[in-house]
Every structure is written in C-alpha cells, then in structure tokens.
Amino acid sequence: MKYSYIALGILWASCFSANAADSTITITGRLKDNMCSVSVGSQDFTVNLETYATNAFRSVGSTSNAVPFAITLENCGSAASGVKINMTGTTDSTNNTLFRNSTAAGYATGIGLQVLNSAGVVVQPNQSSSNLTSTALTANQTNVITYYARMVSTANPVGAGTVSAAANFTLQYD
Fold first, then answer.
1. pLDDT band at 1 (very low <50, low <70, confident <90, very high)
2. What is the per-residue pLDDT across 51-85, written as a single tens digit (0 to 9) for each?
3. Is 14 a member of any domain?
4. Which residues lie across from 68 on neighbouring strands?
5. Do 97 and 167 contact (CB within 8 A), yes or no?
6. Which of 14, 166, 29, 43 is nearest to 104 (CA)?
7. Which one has a higher pLDDT value, 41 or 7?
C-alpha cells in the first residue's frame, strides 16, 4: 500500500510538470535613431545663484540675476530632430511656476526658484507632455540647450538663509 501512494504522488507531480513547458514569454523592444545621450556633465550638477542681500528683494516677484546653465545632449542619432524637456520637482506653495526652496532649518523663506528657457520664457514645472514645447536638435551632433535659473521672492520681506531646490528633467524625443 505504501508503494501505491508513492507511485500516485510521482504520477500526480509529473502531470503538472508537463504543463509547465506549454508557456511562452515573448520579449520585444524597439531601436530608434532619434535619441541622444545626456552628457556626464549634465546628469547631476549645481547652478550657483550667488549671494544676495535680503533687501534686494523689495517686493513679491522681485528676482535675482538669471544664471545660465546648459543640458548637453551628445551622440545624437541620424534621425534626431527635436526633444521636449520636462522639468519636475516640488513647486512653491505660493507660486506654482517656481520650484520650492527647502523648508529645512537655516533655509531662506519667501523665495522660490525659477527656470527660464533660452528665450527667457518661464519653464513651468511638472507639465504634461502635451504642454511642452519641442527644442530643435541637429542630427549626428552634440546639442547644447541653454536655460537660466534665478531666485524669485514670494513674500515681503524674505528671510535670510540658504537657497536650494531640486529639479529633475526628463526627455521626450520627437
């Protein structure tokens, strides 16, 4: 009787293992030649907005000087024609066109950080891709896309301290 149970167990296990080979996993992908690589210097960097006196921000909306920075795209493919760049991050609670300054102890109050494109137009944080404007790319070349960052007062008076906000960017190629 003992051998009958063992034989039934082996038969039962073999039925299930036979069915395990009846499945297929298909792995797919796509190659495109319209993309570029983000240069190492554009992957993680800091834009230094310099030091200002609090009284330089005399009213809500006062700004510091705009400081240029660039995102460099290299190894662009032969079909590269344009890219939409979305800047994302935590927005200021008073003005959602600004990135929020850190709220930790020792950080300035009443200040947000703004990004402008090369034409001086405000780059709205956290936009849907349908609201983004495409920037032209030259195929088979390194492309440098210039932006500017500046401080903008959201309160009067502003409080002294460090100014720092994080902005991430994502690329969507045309």
1. very low
2. 999 999 999 999 999 999 999 999 999 999 999 99
3. no
4. 148
5. no
6. 166
7. 41
DSSP state for residue 140 in the 8-state scheme: T
How far is Cα 91 from Cα 71, in angstroms, rounded to an integer? 21
Angle at 83 between CA 78 and CA 89, to 5 degrees: 145
Segment holding 16, helix H or strand E: helix 2-20
Instruction: Please give the structure tokens belonging to residue 46.
Output: 């800091």
3 within some domain = no
Q: How many CA atoms lie within 13 A of 69 on its CB side?
A: 20
CATH of the domain at 156: 2.60.40.1090
Task: Look at the chain and report how many structural domains it folds into.
Answer: 1
**Using CA atoms, how far apart are residues 77 and 140, in angstroms rounded to an integer?**
5
Q: Quote the CA–CA distance of 93 and 100 in Å, as a whole number.
A: 7
Q: Is residue 149 part of a domain?
A: yes
Query: Average pLDDT, stretch 150-163?
Result: 97
Domain range for 41 is 33-173
Beta bridge pairs of residue 143: 73
Does 91 reside within a domain?
yes
As a whole number, mean pLDDT of residues 101-112 equals 96
**Residues in the chain, overall count:** 174
Q: Could you tell me how far CA 108 lies from the centroid of its own chain?
A: 24
